[in-house]
Write a sequence for this structure.
């Protein structure tokens, strides 16, 4: 099956800093999503982005499908951005394969 | 509001006592699925359903059953729960990713934290 690797595994930022999270995947995909899992465990949809670039407020994402990677940019980070960020991809099957996540802590 | 709901949100039970976790969506989605999340193992798919009366196994189906009698509901059944099924469970839904059609974003429920003692 598809392998999904995220980097870095852990990230500590000072409030106001910018960051880039990376997701590499091993095969072509039909679906790629970014999620934020908050401290209460809820998975929040951030982006549905199998290709191209999208922006939503301080967050933006870019997927380069031909090179099998996606990037999530967080600008002017806030303490509420803390949590785990997951990249998930869907190949030809009917299942999202999740990466291991990036655990982000934003300090005030 | 378009959403996926799960009940209960938290459950502590004992080994062998049958339980059902309900999942419901109000978006008229054909596709629904269940995942479990465990430390160090990430999220893994348990079962999925392409439409009413159509279900199939995911990566880790052992010890679980599902049914899809109505489009909006997809309950997860643990006939005889064991401690290794202690986990955080998520239900998800999307329009059907049928071959030849566009794939769609999956929407996740709030999660059910299950502890089996």
């Amino acid at each position: 099956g598809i392998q999904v690797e995220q980097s870095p595994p852990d990230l500590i930022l000072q409030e106001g800093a910018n960051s880039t999270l990376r997701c590499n995947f091993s095969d072509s995909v039909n679906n790629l999503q970014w999620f934020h899992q908050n401290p209460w465990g809820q998975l929040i949809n951030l982006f549905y982005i199998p290709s191209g670039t999208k922006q939503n407020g301080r967050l933006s994402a870019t997927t380069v499908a031909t090179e099998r990677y996606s990037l999530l940019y967080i600008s002017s980070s806030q303490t509420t951005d803390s949590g785990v960020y997951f990249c998930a991809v869907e190949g030809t099957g009917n299942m999202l394969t999740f990466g291991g996540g990036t655990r982000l802590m934003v300090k005030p | 509001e378009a959403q996926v709901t799960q009940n209960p949100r938290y459950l502590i039970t004992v080994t062998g006592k049958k339980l059902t976790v309900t999942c419901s969506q109000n978006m008229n989605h054909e596709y629904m699925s269940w995942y479990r999340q465990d430390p160090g193992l990430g999220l893994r798919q348990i079962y999925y359903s392409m439409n009413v009366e159509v279900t199939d196994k995911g990566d880790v189906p052992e010890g679980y059953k599902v049914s899809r009698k109505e489009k909006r509901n997809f309950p997860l059944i643990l006939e005889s729960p064991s401690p290794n099924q202690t986990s955080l469970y998520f239900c998800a839904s999307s329009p059907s990713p049928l071959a030849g059609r566009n794939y769609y974003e999956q929407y996740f429920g709030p999660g059910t934290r299950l502890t089996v003692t």
User: Anything to note?
Assistant: The CA atoms of residues 88 and 113 of chain B lie 5 Å apart. The mean pLDDT of chain B is 92. The longest strand of chain B covers residues 42-51. Chain B touches chain A through 24 residues (CB under 8 Å).
